[in-house]
Amino acid sequence: MIQIMPKTLFDKIWENHVVTVLPDNSVLLYIDRHLVHEVTSPQAFEGLRLSGRKVRRTELTYATMDHNVPTVDKQNITDPIAKAQVEALEKNCAQFGVTLYGLDSDKQGIVHVIGPELGLTLPGTTVVCGDSHTSTHGAFGALAFGIGTSEVEHVLATQCLVQTKPKTFRVNFEGKCANGVTAKDLILKLIGVIGTAGATGYVLEYTGAAIGRLSMEARMTVCNMSIEAGARAGLIAPDETTFNYISTGNRPYAPKGKKLEESIAFWKTLRTNNGAKYDREITIDVSKMAPQVTWGTSPGMVTDVSGVVPKPGEVSGLTATDVEKALQYMGLTPGQKITDLKVDVVFIGSCTNSRIEDLRSAAAVFKGRKVKQGVTALIVPGSEPVARQAEREGLDKIFKGAGAQWRQAGCSMCLAMNPDKLKPKERCASTSNRNFEGRQGKGGRTHLVSPEMAAAAAIEGHFVDIRTWR
Amino acid sequence: MKAFTEHTGKIAVLNRANIDTDQIIAKDFLKSIKKTGFGEHLFHDWRTKDDGRLNPDFELNQPRFKGASILIAGNNFGCGSSREHAVWAVLQAGFHVVIAPKKKINNDVIPGFADIFRNNSTKNGLLTLELKEEQVNELIHLVEAHEGLKATVDLPAQKIILQFTNGYQAEGEREFSFEIDPGVKQHFLEGLDEIGRTLKYDKKIAQFEKTHSAQMNK
Description:
Chain A has helices at residues 9-17, 42-51, 80-96, 111-117, 149-158, 183-194, 209-212, 216-224, 240-247, 257-267, 320-330, 356-366, 384-392, 395-402, 451-460, 466-469, and strands at residues 18-21, 27-30, 33-36, 61-64, 99-101, 126-129, 143-146, 160-163, 167-174, 202-207, 233-235, 280-285, 292-294, 302-304, 345-348, 376-379, 405-406, 427-430, 445-448.
């Protein structure tokens, strides 16, 4: 009898992509999809030019612009340096033969929103991009991770990356979430439990009943923030939910007809075998979980909405000094109730929470209500197709009717490289992924939450527990 | 990249945990399409006050750290985004080596560096060294006690050798050894052109592409 060694999902994808083992025991890993944006690519293209190299597989390389894009009138970039960067991408794509979904395209949007939309993100593939939130694509059972500019150049030139094999870490979400507890809360909770470096050196695989019930949009939210736990990537095994997403909608690069059937047969094999060993495992019961709100300057500084701002010295894994620094920056005092924190700005968007389902959940909260006087609420769709879909469903009217601003697609106030910025000391309920100092504008104070929680904070002017608020 | 065998320089300390890439190089400086000009913007929001003047309270603005080329930081240095601009900024501000502690809390290990930052550092010849927490604490203590303390980082020997000069209470040398992945070490010693090396496997890649495409049903 032949014994087949049980493998994890990660092992299967990894083994399918090893071109060769290098003398130092690292491997050349083949890359199926390379997504490119304007901020981390210009120096890589310049490197190719200087060394007289070409893009090896232009048909596996796709570009868009998202980080610098203004969201009021995106064609009109007034910052000359940002404009030069966007134009550099146009020029580089034309010169090297790379497909670009530019500012005039009806497919333009945040790179991690449009990849799946276009059908570029498929189970079992390897996906890289010069952006840490590439982990998003792991929701499809693709091994997807962020790379630096040197590696962007390496992939452009060789379609491969030099990689050492990461370890595997299973995160099992068991139970059923209460109403108002979302994918965003699952991932924030995990980061709170294991810390922002808790998964460094690992690829996470999310499993369990609570993951199985999630839509593709929600799975993308979970995988998106894997990097905030330090992980190389996050994975969810593909299932019927995945196959349905890929086979419906306008996805020009997804397989169709007989090819789709063959693909699905292959994709069904992409599951961790019984008895396969992970290097680390953790189980989190979601049934008693509360909506999560970050209070500090790192995504691991998070607590229940029903909780209070912690005392320095009482946060596990963090020194009293680090907590003091965070509280000082955030303008918070230990013991303050989270629901007493007043917000000035609400940002709903980013590669974490700007997909159609996120906008629907936010709209359900805004419907028939008004944004609190003095609060600015920004709704930024993840892509042009998301924006058009939302408008077809009348969501834009709900947002505008409530007094929120309906903007054009881009990264926007997630990292504030475009004109959407917080002013010093402004407090923001944000659906984005990082609450680092200055992330949304110098001196700005970010609290990470789900779209529902952000919308409710916009209505009340402070955080509320969405479970009992409705 | 340039080969790295040995470096001698002054040590500076920025003992904060989880220093993210937004702090290392703020987004306002990511719009350049060049690889240079980032050094002066390193830790911009910490280094300067709102009115643009230097913040005297920021650790690295202290005169005793002027001209330092070895940086000691807290654990999980470089977490956050994949921006290689962060590594360019550290290098262009004059640092050749960053040291951070590998911390143990109960059974968990908190690494000295975030994954992507460490990778990016290796590609650019910025040596990132992970030391035991006790070693880093002792180093910090010695830097505090000996203004202008210099060290030699000897990569082939995997040693950090502190050099105490006359006039200090302690004289002579003190060594700390460190571990490093053999592949990464070789990369630094050779000043490896990684793309050049991979292109030598061109035939293997082409061969792989034939069978892989069929298998992936593309």
